[in-house]
Amino acid sequence: MHVIVCIKSVPDTTEVRFNPETNTLMRDEVESIINPFDTYAIEEGLRLTEAHGGKVTVLSMGPPKAEKELKEAIAMGCHEAVLLSAREFAGSDTWATAYTLAQAIRKLGDYDIVLCGKQAMDGDTGQVGPGIANQLGISQLTYVSKIREVDLEGRSITVERLLEEGREMVRTQLPALLTVVKDINQPRYPTFRGIRRARNMQLPTWTPDDLPGIERQYLGLDGSPTKVIRVFTPPPREEKVQMIAGETVEEMADLLAGKLIAEKVV
Amino acid sequence: MALLIIDRDACIGCGVCVEVCPFAALELVEGIAVVNDNCTACGACIPECPVDALRLPESVTRRGTPDIESYRGVWVWVEQFGGKAASISWEMMGQGRRLADELGVPLTACVLGHGMEAMARQAVAYGADRVFLADDPALAVYRTAPYARILVDLVRAHKPEIFLLGASSRGRDLAGSVATDLYTGLTADCTGLEIEPGTRLLRQTRPAYGGNIMATILTPDHRPQMATVRHRVFEAPKPDERREGQIVPVDVGVSEEDIVSKVVEFIAESEEVNIADARIIVSGGRGVGGPEGFEPLRELAHVLGGALGASRAAVDEGWIPYAHQVGQTGRTVRPDLYIACGISGAIQHRAGMSTARVIVAINKDPEAPIFDIATYGLVGDLFQIVPALTEQLRRKLGR
Amino acid sequence: MELQLTPEHEMVRKMVREFAEREIAPTIKEHDRSQTFDRSLLPKMAAQGLLGICIPVKYGGAGMDYLSLGLACEELERVDTSARVILSVHVGLNSMTLLQWATEEQKQAYLVPQAMGERIATYGLTEPNAGSDVAGIQTTARRDGDHYVLNGEKMWISLADVADQFLIFAYTDKSQRHRGMSAFIVEREFPGVHTGTIHGKMGVRAGNTGSISLQDARVPAKNLLGHEGEGFKIAMSALDNGRYTVACGSVGLIRACLEASVRYAHERYAFGQPIGQHQLVQQMIARMAQRLDAGRLLCYQAGWLKNQGVRNTRETSMAKWYCCDAAFDSAADAVQIHGAYGYSDEYDVERYLRNSKGAVIYEGSREIHQIMQAQYALGYREDRPLRCELPAYDQDAWEAEA
């Protein structure tokens, strides 16, 4: 079995603090990490190959320093890793990113399952997974919370999807692309053996020249249909607390209930 | 690797761009601005430069949607589950109607499913001038491939300039596939949709970096401009049964045998609301005193349709399972409403919930740090206040 | 001179930090309050390879270097001292001593299961009447055929009531004074070995500390570590490694204090501004930052020397002395910065303070280290080569499979 996991290197936003004076994110010391949802994808890929044999290739599109996240995936147990990094890829929106990743997946050869995290912590769109599936012409199953069965011979996969109303069991054909949610597993830690292996590994970096058949007009800023025209900070929260007092508890409750309804939060 | 082009001769080293950059991608090196890999080409710095020393590369071969002027009209996908319309779709219709009115174009709803005639009429009542109705047993249950195929074909045939979908699981699943097929721009989880004066373009505003910054996005050269919006960001309009509209049946052209994905089973969710996604959380801390102390909070959460949360103190004491813990070592939550009962507001806890839209703090101690970040504060006995609040809300909300 | 950690070291640090945050942090307050040791932590640490982190792969270890050991200690203690103590006694004082002094048969019999975490190990030197005065221990070991018979009591032993095997120091020949001391590998299962837990410690309450009682305990003669009479030297060399882990752990504690204090200084308001704007608070934080930088470098130096196979008794002692004092001072300041909240256990800083006091006492008290450093400086003390030295870190040798 060949599982391809797409990961993204993102800033650790739990660490990101906002500087209210300059209206900017204080990112200088912020580390980059594997997008947390993607660690669940990596874990699921490792579990699949542990059960069915085969290998996990982890793929990422990003700046050169994203190699750190790929090495961490290797340290978790992934077998191979490829970094897609080139000036031509910079400024990609989700369409161009999905296009680029799909071309790289084509080059990686035969695969059975592509795994992605549900969404990236910085962009939060969740669009790249479906985009890749569409580009590759394979089935997509999003919000997967459990892989129930994989039939490699029969070329089918059955999963549980976590939807608002409940859990849906869906079966589709392989190859398929899955985006996974946190409920699916508990990601393992990197191991020392994995860390040693990652240290000794040279990761290939692919540019457009390495992707035969790629159409450069679809890459990067130029290839992206969406354009960010403005970035700003949301208005800060009101400073002072409104203390609600009353003669009786009923009065306080009445006042508060009224306010909550007016704020449309209930 | 960064895209930003800096005219080193023009740069006066004033440092304004460094301060304005939301991604710390710029710094002054020997008095000249230098850009690093953090640059996302957002363009925030360009208008700030007093000497116009910054620019992004010109688009050389922008391949947009051909015949872009012929794209007119606003469309909305009406999502259904089990024969009932998802309320998010009506919220989208409200926005669609507003945008259509501003542009002076018709609003079209796309209804896919089986036995959907009544819903198509509902769509008209909610503001659609026209409804494309794709009705077939094979469409009764949502699956990506057939739904996407039908919408893509409709878009190619009828060319809307704007297409809105609710950002539900299905909506996001569908929108990503459709936008890719059409090679057009899709902006997820918009909190603002406005028509840009002059250009008629859709300005889409959305949060990024966990809500720390907001971005405004355009899809200038591709059609349709697609956007998804989360539940409850906008209000649904009131339906008007007297409205008239055209219901157009659509040839489905897909049979069950053609569809590769099969829904095998569906298990409705029984359990409590998950605090990670909950819109309302009622949370208890040390002041709750014991496992029984959570009962009034559970009542309140139930009336509000919310989830039960807890501070680490309560979890450590064993009064409530760890799954409910909010805070640095528990879950980080971002509900619309967070009611903290008997929680002092230790920093570990605050880190887990401080970005909630409205925070209500109920505590005996007027000095409790939770009041520093609360929107509304009540000093008193939570065992008296919480039941009284539950009663008031039950009455006022008619539950 | 490379003063930077490699990317692999950063991966190690990150992994141990995540492990500590996920496996230890959620329940540590509970365990600290109830003074219970979380036994379930040991198999988890074993599975991650932490219990054999710097032991060669061919002896069942993870094959990492001594700096990795230091980083692991730093990250464990950042969450709680009790977790780092496990590495101090199991790896630092015991396993590394076996690596240095044991015969091949002893390594196979004892080091391998320890490195794999199948057997837990600790170190028994201190007694009720002898701490700093190591030569003042009273445990005896009498040769009887192909056994030694041990009698005595060890006290203040970490993991005493949990460990499976102990490194015990006893006099085989009192007349030779400290040259008459010997070291023994003792298994819990040997007849005459009993252990108990000590309660009521000021700190490290989530850690197990206890006593080992040896009553005519029969230890096979092949379990003598090194030669008869080498016990004192072995004990001292073990402390070089134990102290290193304590020093590195203290760096983690300083960092925990600094992180907690910085967070609180941003959030707590007094006199209309965050207290981080108040200069006397700033002074305390600046000193913490200084201690962190200085302490860390002293530890890295010691770890680097170990990697090179260079004798580092002086440098390790300096690091331990400085870092433990620095951690204690930082914890006291952290409590102060938190004000009344620092005095309650709702925040972690009071636990840091209680924990930090122990390190100023154990593994060579602050006073012992000062005397050592003065003796080095004055030329009264010189380290002479040992018969067995801690092997230098050799990546290929460490990573080679059995």
Keywords:
heterotrimer, B: 399 residues, alpha/beta, Alpha-Beta Plaits, Rossmann fold, seven-stranded parallel beta sheet, five-stranded parallel beta sheet, 26% helix, 25% strand, C: 402 residues, alpha+beta, Butyryl-Coa Dehydrogenase, subunit A, domain 1, Butyryl-CoA Dehydrogenase, subunit A, domain 2, Butyryl-CoA Dehydrogenase, subunit A, domain 3, 3 domains, four-stranded mixed beta sheet, four-stranded antiparallel beta sheet, 10 strands, 14% strand
Structure description:
The complex is a heterotrimer of chains A (266), B (399) and C (402). Chain A has 266 residues and is an alpha/beta fold. Chain A is built from seven helices and 15 strands. Chain A has helices spanning 36-52, 67-76, 94-108, 128-136, 192-200, 220-223, 249-262, and strands spanning 2-7, 9-11, 17-19, 24-26, 32-34, 55-61, 80-84, 113-117, 139-151, 156-163, 166-173, 176-180, 205-206, 227-232, 242-243. In chain A, the strands form three sheets. A nine-stranded mixed beta sheet of chain A has the order 11-10-9-12-8-1-6-7-13, sandwiched between helices. A two-stranded antiparallel ribbon of chain A has the order 2-5. The longest helix of chain A has 17 residues, at 36-52. The termini of chain A are far apart. The mean pLDDT of chain A is 90. By secondary structure, chain B is of the alpha/beta class. Chain B folds into three domains: 5-55, Alpha-Beta Plaits; 68-258, Rossmann fold (3-Layer(aba) Sandwich), CATH 3.40.50; 271-397, TPP-binding domain (Rossmann fold), CATH 3.40.50. Chain B has helices at 16-20, 87-103, 117-125, 144-158, 169-182, 295-304, 312-316, 347-353, 370-373, 382-397; strands at 5-6, 26-29, 32-35, 54-55, 74-78, 80-81, 84-85, 107-113, 130-135, 162-166, 186-190, 192-195, 202-208, 213-218, 225-229, 246-249, 262-268, 280-284, 307-310, 337-341, 358-363, 376-379. The radius of gyration of chain B is 25 Å and the shape is flat. The mean pLDDT of chain B is 89. With 402 residues, chain C is of the alpha+beta class. Chain C folds into three domains: 7-120, Acyl-CoA dehydrogenase/oxidase, N-terminal domain (Butyryl-Coa Dehydrogenase, subunit A, domain 1, Orthogonal Bundle), CATH 1.10.540; 122-229, Beta Barrel (Butyryl-CoA Dehydrogenase, subunit A, domain 2); 233-394, Butyryl-CoA Dehydrogenase, subunit A, domain 3 (Up-down Bundle). Chain C is 52% helix and 14% strand. In chain C, the strands form three sheets. A four-stranded mixed beta sheet of chain C has the order 1-4-5-8. A four-stranded antiparallel beta sheet of chain C has the order 2-3-7-6, with helices on one face. Chain C has a two-stranded antiparallel ribbon with strand order 9-10. In chain C, α3 (66-79) crosses α6, α3 packs antiparallel against α7 (279-308) and α6 packs antiparallel against α7 (279-308). The longest helix of chain C has 37 residues, at 231-267. The two termini of chain C are 34 Å apart. The mean pLDDT of chain C is 96. Chains A and B meet through β4, α3, α4, β9 and β10 of A and α4, α5, β11, β13 and β14 of B. β11 of chain A pairs antiparallel with β17 (262-268) of chain B.
